[in-house]
Design a protein that fits this description.
It is a single chain. Strands 3-2-1-4-5-6-7 form a seven-stranded parallel sheet, sandwiched between helices. Strands 10-9-8-11-12-13 form a six-stranded parallel sheet, sandwiched between helices. It is 47% helix and 18% strand. The chain has two domains: 2-190 and 380-395, 3-Layer(aba) Sandwich (Rossmann fold), CATH 3.40.50; 202-378, Glycogen Phosphorylase B (Rossmann fold, 3-Layer(aba) Sandwich), CATH 3.40.50.2000. It has 16 helices and 13 strands. Helix 4 (102-113) packs across helix 5 (140-159), helix 8 (229-241) packs across helix 14 (347-359) and helix 12 crosses helix 15. The N and C termini lie close together (10 Å). The protein is of the alpha/beta class.
Length: 396
């Protein structure tokens, strides 16, 4: 089978988001003997990317950084160009199946399918992209993009032949958007425990946190729509009782400048460390040197169906998680066994849950170990990607 996999994110080196998912899916297709073509942006030479992914060929696309403060405007220019390239590429290679990650690539898959009879369009949907724009500043033009984008997203969900999504909650949301029940399958996100695993990072901890009692970590792309400022508000309460606690923000994003300003203005600078953007293996070291992992999301539609990568990465490194009580996260986090829930948007409750972990070392270690065992059993990327491919083969 000829398979075209398309994702409008930088696939190599992995940049978070859907890239770990799609890179493992590509490798799983190739391992099963399928001829895999890839359309994505990359940060290495094409030959190196092909070798790393095991694909037959790769079409490099133009990239817009997820950390760019003007990314919304740039997408308006770059995405149409990338879509045109992918359609031309599909006409040339004539795939039997197009697997597209999220709605923009999914719309491109639908366009490309028009030139290839009996080609199956499979949408891999892990996010509702245009729901996020509620949190962006920009006036009427942003509202217009959101209005048109939502229509496009619904069209892609309705017209894709099959859809694979990340949670049963997201599946239910897609039914509301017009998807047919028999066309949807669920394959959760996961983690590569070869990259994320517990190592002794005493030196790193001592260097950055000194003699801190506990280190609380939040990592990933730091964008305003995820409400990262709640960490600062919770930290104010935590450090009053536990002044030797430190908070590490590992990663970068459009919310970071404002976050740093508020940390300084509120007199919290001594309690916070900002690493900037680092690679996956470095993230694993930071997590291993920490005690408590945070997942921060607000209670909005775009977050209710999401299963983030963060909790799996924390667990793989042996630390427990504190996550918002949202439906999709309730599917993977076991309250009191692998983590604790806080009420979304409630900084007092978040501070209370952080304090519980600080106070009870035995509970913290037990939950971290349980999470580690769980990811090895259920959430390894290799197993999940194989399941993804089996589902796609079944579609045909």
């Amino acid at each position: 089978m000829k398979v075209l996999v398309t994702i409008f994110e930088k696939l190599i080196p992995l940049s978070g988001g859907g890239t770990p998912r799609m890179s493992n899916v590509i490798k799983a297709f190739a391992k099963k003997g399928h001829r895999v073509y890839v359309a994505s942006s990359i940060g290495v030479k094409v030959e190196k990317a092909i070798k790393e992914l095991g694909c037959f060929d790769l079409l490099p696309l133009t990239n817009v950084s997820r950390l760019d403060t003007r990314k919304t405007l740039k997408y308006l220019y770059v995405n149409p160009l990338n879509m045109l390239q992918v359609v031309k590429y599909a006409r040339r290679i004539k795939p039997d199946m197009i697997v597209s990650h999220n709605s923009i690539a999914g719309f491109t898959g639908l366009l490309a399918k028009r030139f290839r009879r009996n080609c199956l369009a499979v949408l891999d949907l892990t996010d509702l992209l245009f729901e996020y724009l509620d949190n962006y500043q920009g006036g009427g033009w942003v509202r217009l993009i959101q209005f048109l984008g939502r229509k496009l997203e619904k069209k892609v969900i309705k017209e894709s032949d099959k859809t694979i999504t990340i949670s049963n909650t997201m599946r239910n949301i897609l039914l509301i958007y017009g998807a047919q029940p028999e066309s949807i399958e669920v394959v959760c996100d996961g983690v590569d425990t070869g990259v994320f695993n517990h190592t002794d990072e005493t030196e790193l901890r001592n260097k950055l946190a000194g003699r801190a009692m506990k280190v609380v970590i939040f990592q990933g792309v730091i964008d305003p729509q995820d409400d990262p400022e709640i960490i600062l508000t919770a930290a104010k309460e935590v450090v009053v009782r536990y002044p030797e606690t430190r908070f590490w923000i590992v990663g970068d994003g459009t919310a970071m400048p404002n976050l740093k300003q508020k940390v300084s203005r509120d007199g919290l600078a001594r309690y916070f460390y900002f690493s900037g953007w680092v690679g996956q293996r470095e993230v694993s070291k930071y997590i291993s040197a920490s005690d408590i992992g945070l997942v921060i999301l607000p209670n909005v539609l775009s977050a209710r169906g999401r299963v983030t990568l963060k909790e799996f990465e924390y667990w793989a490194c042996g630390i427990p998680v504190i996550v918002p009580c949202l439906p999709a996260l309730e599917e993977v986090v076991e309250e009191g066994k692998t983590g604790l829930f806080y009420e979304p948007g409630n900084s007092v409750d978040l501070a209370r849950k952080i304090s519980l972990f600080i106070e009870d070392e035995e509970m913290r270690k037990r939950m971290g170990q349980k999470g580690r065992e769980m990811v090895k059993k259920k959430y390894e990327w290799g197993k999940l990607a194989d399941r993804f491919v089996e589902i796609c083969e079944g579609f045909l």
